[in-house]
Write a structure and sequence with these properties.
2 domains, 46% helix, three-stranded antiparallel beta sheet, alpha/beta, TIM Barrel, 467 residues, 11% strand, 18 helices
């Protein structure tokens, strides 16, 4: 039989892509995840639209207060049996807030949680994974599903292995895990899902997926052999997935599922302003830049943002330079101080100090106490005022602050815009979560089938006479 004719190959459906065990576990039609865009940009409407399309959506809880997050849980649970998840972002500067969110998710028995920006394990993550864990009648572990986003092999390894004994002992002493839960945690990986995050929006190490994914997949396989897991961790792919061929490539690497992020900010449902959506719809693959992260500013962590149409990346980078060069606000020269107040803050620094004082008096007294004793920590809080406000100005579409919009964005956005040119999805009003998911997955299935046809692939998808 002659190979290469596409008609010789049975059709490939979007629901054939990815790991069928992953789809069955979560009751999904598609091995497709809509990522947790922070500050509620991935809002209840985004998550509901993902579920309607047969995919899994995560609510973007990062940067929101507990009451807002609990309202989201209420809304999503009331929508019925649809699948949803909630995000927990690492907060090294406020571990109490991180622990409080975990308390909420455990108390409300949220079954799917995505962890992001973690540099290593914390007690909160381990508790999240195993609080309420038990063995089912068939001997399989029944647990909360933890989707850990990772971009470094050394971090991935910590999530792929059982939690360290000393950490489990501490959680038992604090009565955050029972003895039985700790025993189960000692025999199972911390995360049962690992999302390999390549060059993405927001927190990113800008790693290429083709380099990173195989390394972490091998770590997964090694951990499964070493610890004798009954079921190895699912490994998914994220970062740079903005058009069908990229998604098909991720599945060809062995991804159990794919996760999209940047492209969903430009959708009708996304909880951000029309001004932001318009800017995203014009972005090309090079219209992104790195800038200091508001939540990990003092650690020098950076996020990827949209460069086109905004000065945020340059201005935030300047703040980082000033911070590193000075030990306190008083050390900043009058001319530099004047430029910051005129171009970035648009108000005197002492006025921002008062705002920061009032905010942390309600939010975190411990953070405020550190800043009162450490002038550099106080300077960091003032600079973080700008970094935090910039994302809010973008979400609210505050046109007077358009040049300061912080819009998290990776090159996938530009790839999507190029692919969508000349199609209905080129228009912002047609960019819905469901339409994008289905178009990308149908396109990926077509691309995968064409690739198999070119190579004359035989196997489970081939006809009987080819086998």
């Amino acid at each position: 039989m002659t190979h290469g004719a596409i008609s010789d190959f049975p059709p490939l459906s979007p629901s054939d892509l990815g790991d069928p065990r992953f789809r069955r576990l979560h009751g999904l039609e598609l091995a497709y995840v809509v990522g947790e865009m922070a500050r509620g940009i991935a809002n209840e409407a985004v998550v509901a639209a993902a579920a309607k399309a047969g995919a899994l959506g995560f609510f973007g809880a990062a940067g929101l207060g507990l009451s807002r997050i609990e309202r989201a849980v209420d809304v999503l649970e009331a929508m019925g049996p649809g699948v949803f998840g909630i995000n927990v972002i690492h907060q090294p500067g406020d571990p109490a807030a991180e622990a409080a969110l975990v308390d909420l998710l455990v108390r409300r028995d949220v079954r799917r949680v995505s962890t992001s920006a973690f540099l290593g394990l914390t007690g909160s993550v381990v508790r999240l994974a195993f609080a309420g864990a038990r063995l089912g009648a068939d001997g399989a572990l029944v647990r909360r599903h933890v989707f850990a986003k990772v971009s470094r092999p050394e971090v991935a390894r910590q999530f792929l292995e059982p939690a360290p004994a000393n950490l489990l002992a501490s959680l038992v002493r604090e009565r955050l895990l029972s003895d039985e839960e700790a025993l189960l945690a000692a025999r199972h990986p911390v995360a049962d899902h690992l999302t390999v995050e390549a060059d993405s929006a927001g927190h990113t190490d800008n790693r290429p997926l083709l380099v990173l994914f195989p390394i972490i997949a091998r770590l997964r396989d090694a951990a499964a052999r070493t610890f004798g897991y009954r079921e190895p961790t699912f490994v998914g792919a994220a970062g740079g997935l903005g058009e069908p061929h990229a998604i098909a490539a991720a599945f060809s690497l062995g991804a159990a599922y794919v996760l999209t992020g940047s492209i969903n900010q430009a959708t009708v449902e996304a909880g951000t302003s029309l001004a932001v959506k318009a800017l995203l719809a014009q972005a090309d693959i090079a219209d992104v830049a790195m800038a200091p992260a508001a939540d990990m500013f003092e650690l020098g962590v950076r996020v990827q943002v949209l460069k086109r149409g905004t000065m945020f990346a340059q201005r935030a980078t300047r703040l980082g330079e000033v911070y590193r060069a000075h030990a306190s606000l008083d050390e900043i020269s009058p001319d530099v101080r004047a430029r910051l107040e005129r171009d970035l803050f648009r108000k005197p620094i002492h006025a921002i100090e008062a705002e920061v004082e009032a905010f942390f008096r309600e939010r975190s007294a411990a953070t405020l106490e550190v800043a009162r004793k450490d002038p550099k920590a106080r300077m960091a809080l003032v600079f973080r005022w700008y970094l935090g406000k910039s994302s809010r100005w973008a979400e609210e579409g505050e046109t007077a602050r358009a040049m300061d919009f912080q819009i998290w964005c990776g090159p996938a956005m530009g790839a999507f815009n190029q692919w969508a040119t000349g199609t209905p999805l080129s228009l912002p009003e047609n960019r819905t979560i469901g339409a994008i998911a289905l178009a990308l997955m149908h396109g990926a299935a077509s691309a995968a089938r064409q690739s198999q046809a070119r190579m004359g692939v035989t196997g489970p998808l081939a006809s009987e006479d080819q086998r």
